[in-house]
Write a structure and sequence with these properties.
This protein is mainly β. It has one domain: Immunoglobulin-like (Sandwich), CATH 2.60.40.770. Helices cover 14% and strands 37% of the residues. The longest helix has 20 residues.
């Protein structure tokens, strides 16, 4: 009986390591939330929350000139660029995951109507140059 428990324990540990090793070194994003869902142009900030996971932990950069997070307004294709600071030490090669919160400023109505629905596409690039999947936010409304 003791040997059976030992074998079960050993198999459990091995299977955990296999699951960990299957996490890709290419970052993966999931959309979490965007709020508020309605704003007045130029007056309110929009908060976008993104979940990330990266198998080798090389997300973010300490160089202030590096832009590695890209948010594209689907209405007009305008791309907003951001810098995510380095999230783990260089050379650590560890799996990291968490949420990023990005504040979008100065959204406006770009057409001739009094309001517009806005949806964003989002992706990130790690220090190795791996581009994540592109995710899409839910819609918010911008009013004049």
């Amino acid at each position: 009986m003791r040997n059976i428990l030992y074998i079960f324990f050993l198999l459990s540990i091995i299977s955990c390591k296999d699951d960990e090793s299957k996490i890709s070194n290419t970052p993966h994003l999931d959309f979490v939330s965007i709020s508020p869902i309605a704003i007045t142009e130029f007056q309110e900030e929009v908060s976008l929350v993104i979940k990330y996971i990266d198998g080798d932990g090389d997300l973010g950069d300490n160089d202030p000139d590096i832009k590695n997070l890209f948010i594209i307004d689907q209405r007009n294709g305008v791309e907003y660029t951001y810098r995510v600071p380095q999230l783990s030490p260089s050379g650590s090669n560890i799996t990291i995951e968490g949420n990023l919160e990005v504040d979008l400023n100065s959204l406006s109505v770009v057409g001739s109507t009094n309001s517009e629905s806005v949806i964003f596409d989002i992706y990130i690039i790690d220090r190795s140059g791996n581009q994540s999947n592109t995710i899409t936010s839910s819609a918010i409304t911008v009013y004049k």
